[in-house]
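$ run holo --ligand "alpha-D-glucose-1-phosphate-6-vanadate" --emit tokens
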Amino acid sequence: MRVTTRPIEGQKPGTSGLRKKTKVFMSKGYLKNFIQSIFDATGGAEGKTYVLGGDGRYFNVEAAQTILKMAAANGAKRVIVGQGALLSTPAASHLIRRNGADGGIILSASHNPGGPDADFGVKFNGPNGGPASEAVTEAIFARSGEIDAYCIADERDIDLSKIGMQHIGCMEVFIIDPVADYARLMESLFDFPKIRAMFAGGFRMRFDAMCAVTGPYAKEILEGRLGAAPGTVVHAEPLPDFGGMHPDPNPTWAHELMDEMFGADAPDFGAASDGDGDRNMVVGQGIYVSPSDSLAVLAANAHLAPGYRAGLKGVARSMPTSCAADRVAEALGIGAYETPTGWKFFGNLLDAGRATLCGEESFGTGSDHVREKDGLWAVLLWLNILAERKESVGEILKAHWRKFGRNYYSRHDYEALPVEVANEVMDGLRARLPGLPGTDLAGRTISSADDFAYADPVDGSTSERQGLRVVFGDGSRIVLRLSGTGTEGATLRLYLERYAAGPDGLDQEVQAALAPMIRAAEELAGIRAVTGREGPDVVT
Ligand code: VG1
Ligand code: CO
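-- output --
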């Protein structure tokens, strides 16, 4: 059935897919226009195979039913769907690759809260399993601005609870266990017997799934296959509103886990994941591992896991992520890459075999096993390393700093600002950039200052205005950019970094160690002065 429609404004995907208030997605034609724009902008759905699933948030199932009917009416051959329309983002990426699918649609607003009054999102991934490139994303947006009709089959809903094959017209709908293939992939990368032996020896862990999609994955892998004690995984059932939790695995939102890891009788290891399972936070007994440090430690130790025994080809990080991983890459004699924020920029490096590990300061780490960041993968790599080294998280982290020095790092978020105010801060600093190199601030000399532009070394595409950065002679950095995942006003992210070579000064409190950079950032950008805010809303 062909239904006439009119373009809807603002269907512009951000850092990771299109995110809007759930009610916006539920409004007439909104989802359908966007899905049809995806099909239209990627050469049509005729004869194609797609993977479909989401993080279980409110409207997940209804959206999946709509997309299935649209895929059928657009002539798709087959859609592989996670049972209950559930699939974590990394599991979806794996399924696209494993089945040679033409793409995938992931229903998630990731770490944004879910529910009728919260957020919903749609991501489109390409045949390599990764987020659509900027060019494809632009084409989808352009199409959404001229669309005049969408196609949808006038059929009954599919029974999404039933594993196996069903049909909508002649399109096959193949419902699969969302966990099985992913669990097998993890088993192929890590030394499960060794990790199992560690758990059998009394190693204790807490995994907080935050009522989001990783619950079933973590239960099956950690408690089922690795023998972690029952109850290791908490908040394990994916709920439409994430049980009121904000499934963003950072010390602020995963505070229950933090309290436990810093309390008496803390387990040996703690971890949390986000709405769609691609992020991870890692915590040791009484010690928090910053995501930038986690990437560096994983890069330095990955060879201890069977899947990475041959060594790494290179390490890539997003620009705002601390430079800790670069030091490891240098020591290993492998390539180090710096990309704009967002996983789509790692795709070419992974496909071309230039990078094996990638990471972002926003609790994202991953490797070339899929084309998305992968929360549980990072947790399992940590477990594999812990099982091999037989040291605590704290011991491993401190030894790492002694060897490589420590990149003190923090991100300060100023959320839900009026858009004009956030732009005023950005424009103010951008205007000052050319005059900064050579000047002194915070007892250091500024060595460079620019608006980060990226030239992809594989396909030569360029991406400009990816964040303002001020770099000091001693490697300290201040970075400022606007978030591209929010659904309300604008969020300013201020990233602060200071390098300490050691051996002294490796054990300072992070905010205290960064105090000179925090002051310098205020002098440069005047965030507090311009916004009138007294401080950041979230500090990670
Ligand atoms: C944020 C993070 C970025 C991450 C993106 C998607 O984007 O900073 O590093 O790739 O979220 O992650 P932004 O534009 O708000 O800073 V997820 O877990 O939402 O798919
Ligand atoms: Co996510």
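-- notes --
The longest strand covers residues 406-417.
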